[in-house]
Design goal:
By secondary structure, the chain is α+β, with helices and mostly antiparallel strands. Helix content is 33%, strand content 23%. It has one domain: Irregular (HU Protein, Chain A). A hairpin with a 6-residue loop joins strand 3 and strand 4. The two termini are 15 Å apart.
Amino acid sequence: MPGSNIVLMEHVTEMTKADIAKHVQEVAGISEHEAEALLDQILELVKSTLKVGEEVTVTGFGKFRVRTKNARIGRNPRTGEEITIPARRVVTFQASRLLKEYVNTGHGTEPDNGKLK
């Protein structure tokens, strides 16, 4: 399958959506437009799944979920005045054991012959 091997981008301090699309284009051998459209579709699927309150699990990578935080009393740090912080939903991410191991194996080394399972 094209693109099944992980190829590290060198000297990246921050990866943007455009960087990911460019990398997908190069690894998969598809056009820039196709890579951007594919990435957009994946991200829309993740967002819409989270919006309805379902979890998104990417095996070997991690789990995205939505958690509800209750309203609470807080303080304005400038004035010290008590304020009510409204209830809200937040997106959380829990890295998988494999991702944690991968990140902690050192710079430039990859477990499992360069494949993250």
